[in-house]
Design brief:
Elements (H helix, E strand, L loop, with lengths): L2 H21 L4 H8 L3 H8 L2 H24 L6 H18 L3 H11 L6 H7 L2 H15 L4 H28 L11 H15 L3
Helix pairs in contact: 1-2, 1-3, 1-4, 4-5, 4-6, 4-7, 5-8, 5-9, 5-10, 8-9, 9-10
Length: about 200
């Protein structure tokens, strides 16, 4: 592929990443205008909009995976700090790219056979689950797999809670909802309490 073609494809991809991260729903026209290309160029390089959006979802999934992985393998962090930073990293990522979930819902609603990368590589990622459960095991002395699974589910649900709270509050309530997650001190306090409650054993 020539440099011009590669450059055009990169421009289209970057435009889609920028728009989708904040907006979720995007038209082919918006992408073409931001990238400075015609719609035919998008179809040429990606086939159609859905193929492009799948690649965008893969990009964000890889980004989130790297953030989590770097924290979980950091040997300099004590276990509780590792879990706190991991949880905070996920929440911060979802707040930074609030439209990511909307993107996934849109893709799946148009293609029932699509298996979102974020589900496969984040939520169902066995390596990630084992890392988190090992940290819980090391911190609590719990070895029963069933109980470790429950605690993993608790922490994952606890991470998603603020994200859902923010989304619901912004749509249905003028207030901040149960907690003010835009306040970093309150969010940090919540995550610290969540992790400490799970590590009590």
């Amino acid at each position: 592929m020539s440099n011009d073609l590669t450059d055009t494809k990169s421009k289209i991809f970057q435009a889609a990443i920028d728009i989708v991260g904040l907006k979720g729903e995007v038209t082919i026209k918006e992408i073409s205008e931001k990238a400075g290309v015609n719609i035919a160029a998008i179809n040429y390089h990606f086939g159609n909009k859905n193929n492009l959006l799948r690649e965008v979802e893969n990009h964000y999934t890889d980004l989130l995976y790297k953030i989590q992985h770097e924290i979980l393998v950091n040997e300099e962090l004590p276990p509780s700090k590792k879990l706190i930073q991991w949880a905070k990293g996920v929440v911060d990522f979802m707040f930074k790219y609030p439209a990511l979930l909307a993107l996934i819902v849109n893709i799946v609603s148009e293609d029932k056979n699509y298996n979102p990368a974020i589900i496969k590589n984040i939520y169902l990622n066995s390596e990630m689950q084992v890392s988190v459960k090992n940290i819980i095991r090391e911190s609590t002395g719990i070895n029963e797999e069933k109980l470790l699974n429950y605690k993993y589910m608790q922490i994952f649900s606890g991470i998603l809670g603020p994200v859902i709270n923010k989304a619901v509050s912004s749509i249905y309530s003028e207030g901040k909802g149960i907690m003010d997650i835009d306040n970093s001190d309150e969010l940090n306090e919540y995550i610290t309490i969540l992790v400490n409650s799970i590590l009590k054993g």
